[in-house]
User: Fold this.
Amino acid sequence: MSDLYPNHSFDIEFKDPKSRARIAKLKTPHGTIETPNYIFCGTKAALRCMTSKQAAEAGADIHLVNTYHLVVQPGADIVEKLGGAHGMTGWTGPMMTDSGGFQIFAFGEGTVADEIKGRRKQNPKEKLLLDITEEGAVFKSYIDGSKFILTPESSIDAQRKIGADLIYCLDECPPYHLDRDYMAKSMEMSHRWEMRSLEEFKRGADGSQGLYGIVQGGVYEDLRKASCDFVSSQPFFGTAIGGSLGVTVDQIYDEVVSWCMPNVPEDRPVHLLGIGSMRDVFKGVRMGIDTFDCVTPTRIARHGWALKKGEPNERMNLRNGRFRDDPTPLDETQDHYYSQTFSKGYLHHLIKSHEPLATHILSVHNIATMTRLMREVRASIKDGTLDQLEKEWLVD
Amino acid sequence: MSDLYPNHSFDIEFKDPKSRARIAKLKTPHGTIETPNYIFCGTKAALRCMTSKQAAEAGADIHLVNTYHLVVQPGADIVEKLGGAHGMTGWTGPMMTDSGGFQIFAFGEGTVADEIKGRRKQNPKEKLLLDITEEGAVFKSYIDGSKFILTPESSIDAQRKIGADLIYCLDECPPYHLDRDYMAKSMEMSHRWEMRSLEEFKRGADGSQGLYGIVQGGVYEDLRKASCDFVSSQPFFGTAIGGSLGVTVDQIYDEVVSWCMPNVPEDRPVHLLGIGSMRDVFKGVRMGIDTFDCVTPTRIARHGWALKKGEPNERMNLRNGRFRDDPTPLDETQDHYYSQTFSKGYLHHLIKSHEPLATHILSVHNIATMTRLMREVRASIKDGTLDQLEKEWLVD
Assistant:
């Protein structure tokens, strides 16, 4: 491994005796983060309405950008010319990119992936995925309809140009409802694509990036185990649990994640793709998940929600009229300038007035809340107080 | 004057021997600003997409909020309950409010005041101004059609609840195209409204606010002079040049402002209402204008424009395809984190991607640019180099 990843490492420092939870240091060329940690989504090389510096000030240690979106606009070559995702955003810490696969296949089903909801002007039923072959996937730009092809090789090439510290193999992400036969064939093709991704990665490896393999197999236990075996057998830096994880919390954790976790390499960081409510964090860390990513913290901010420790359903709806004349701070329990300075009544007013400042304040507050959660989770794993912490954060 | 304004003062520290330009200290209960200065528009108690702290970090010394907008949503009583405009926004420096008159009459003409363009959903031809009488103005909310009445007394009352340091008399703001007879009658009514504003102000004066009188009279020299005489005769803290100033730059400065400035009290601060391009600043300060306000810096940011020293037409259009792969900083001449960190190419990408971060970055950059302009203007007045500075900033 050290040949491929001379500047990356994953050092486990503490293991919870009561669960698979663990504390580790994940080292990358742009810095080291402590895990478990949360990877915020800066989809198009922008954390929507805050600068990366503001995210850092809110405690964020790492964020990701989406290869798919950047390939479509402005294009990987321009990203490279602009200094990569680090150069564009001014972010100096670790970054991650996905392979682009998830978005292509999410759109391929004729559904609008939530990531770009509100941006897409065309018929949401229009299929953007034109063709999937052994070679790769052909898709149309959601901006102007122009045609793109994404292959394992071109995804790695694009991710190299974007320049994140942690990158991904291209995989096929079939939707939940497809049958076991399709899933098995799809998983096999994903494995071939992952091998090609790895070969392309090796061809250009310069120590700046660490490659994650992805476990596929849908909601089928034998497929998940086979996929874990495949991923374990190859020199990936990290492991990601991807594809269809299930439709209920129980299915995700009691089945899919449970099947995978005993079968992935213990000495590699494990990322759970695209999931990250507070409840997910508590469930996931106990099962050994090291990193989470989800658009939730910034997306719900755009709809007027503030995440809060100990709040039913994890969040407050500041659009609610009961906050109209409430002069108390957004979140008096949280030590962040925004949470302390702005009142619930002011946020309610900004939302009612369609002021973009509402989204900015709530997005930063929500990132501050999730980074606080992760800090407290790490501390409680070390202290053996994770159960108690969960009761403080999650309230029915 | 000192009875009414024990905590306000305006001390002229330097006069340009070649023009009416002057350097002064304008003291308010929330701090002292040096003039000439620029008052940024935080219309609905929000500088659109930045916090007031970010505005302060970009050099802003003072900003205003609009009484009209806050009366309509959330209402002056709620603003008061939320700690006034200072309490809501977390701004600790001096603030100004207008009387609400401008917006009512701008909408009264059936035109959409640009301030809320993009927010109004109803027919732009719909008249929101229902009636003007000696008592005041009756108007409909642009949000839900509910009826409001604004009188000189209710405007002062609302401004007291909002709690800005510098506030305004209610005046009528008739549009440019009305004839001299209407203008004369309107001016007379404005003067009666200003007297009523002053009486209401005196009734509740507690030393926290300074009241500006407004010079009306449209584009008629004798009316402007009569209005200056009226305003000078009353114990206002400051003087504002308001109403229809003309339709060309020449008419504004060579006529209206020229007629007024020799006839307003020299020892009071003079504010030019609603005007503030870089060119306006250079023209205005030479004629003795102490403060400017305009929505331009933040409004043009929303359309992808960056203000820049020495740029033709004062600004760059970052939507332009020539910036697509330009890795140079947004403005290498400006010592602000945003101007230095983000490239023109990144801004172009954010604009093309409809990322709200573009507006945030450009708004902050534009405020930083205007505060830099004002700092350099003040320094050059003292140095006698204002002509040279104008050549550096304004390029055809």
